[in-house]
Specification:
By secondary structure, this protein is mainly alpha-helical. The protein has two domains: 35 residues, no CATH class; 59 residues, no CATH class. It has six helices and no strands. The chain is flat, with a radius of gyration of 34 Å. It comes from Tagetes erecta (African marigold).
């Protein structure tokens, strides 16, 4: 680098080299040169994709989760799921009637149903 700037200066051209050899190699500029020389991108191995997880991420959490678990153990899993399905259907009907009464469109209705499901998970109804 220094040799090319010297020959350029000798030929009558102005040089863009500012500073001495010591500052460009061992001084402040050395860290920037070293940082630029380091690889910035590291290739990672192939990611492993897991299948979709079924179930509630908040299983066992929430205020009503213990009550739901005890009820499921007393009634039995099959009958409990039937009762739960009826309760969810009734709740969806209430949401549908509410949306009709306020004039909400289907997109808003779906948003309310998703919100009800999230709240049910947080409270522990879907434990």
């Amino acid at each position: 680098m220094a040799a090319s700037s010297i020959t350029a200066a000798a030929a009558g051209f102005s040089s863009s080299f500012h500073g001495s050899w010591g500052t460009s190699v061992a001084g402040q500029d050395y860290s920037t040169v070293q940082a630029k020389a380091a690889p910035t991108c590291v290739k990672a191995g192939k990611l492993i994709r897991h299948g979709p997880m079924m179930g509630n991420v908040n299983a066992g959490k929430g205020v009503f989760a213990p009550l739901v678990v005890v009820t499921r153990n007393i009634v039995g899993k099959k009958q409990f799921n039937q009762i739960r399905g009826k309760a969810i259907a009734l709740h969806s009907q209430v949401i549908n009637e509410f949306c009709k009464s306020i004039g909400a469109d289907s997109k808003q209705k779906q948003g309310l149903i998703r919100l009800a499901k999230k709240n049910g998970e947080r409270l522990g109804f879907l434990a």
